[in-house]
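Posting for a labmate who doesn't have an account.
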Amino acid sequence: MGTSAIIEPRPQEIAISMDIIFLNALQVQAVIGIFDWERRIKQTVSIDLEMATDIRKAADSDHIDDTLDYKAVSKRIASYVEESEFQLVETLAERIAEILMQEFHVPWVKVKLTKPGAIRGARDVGVLIERGSKH
């Protein structure tokens, strides 16, 4: 008879689910586009954001300092977009995601950026990107 090793159960990893703070239809005027006429005007872009965060501390304290301040987020993103002059919505969406992850310490973000009326017959066109991890 051999000796049998006692196998201890591994501690379960605690799954931390992230909550989502969202901001929809932030309308900002920006220079965006590849055509010469688009480089001379400002067009409306519409931005939807979903940002992962843990809201439990804020829920306990009921204080703005313990959560992701969506007013601060909207002001920062609107200011950045207004000053930008990218050709592609893809580039602008990527930069927005970078700002949210770096400056607001958001571990995961979904950015939907659209140009209303950019294509005749379509309400809007744009991109939808996700960056980071919810876990």
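Reply:
Got it, the structure tokens are right above this. Residues 89-103 form the longest helix (15 residues).
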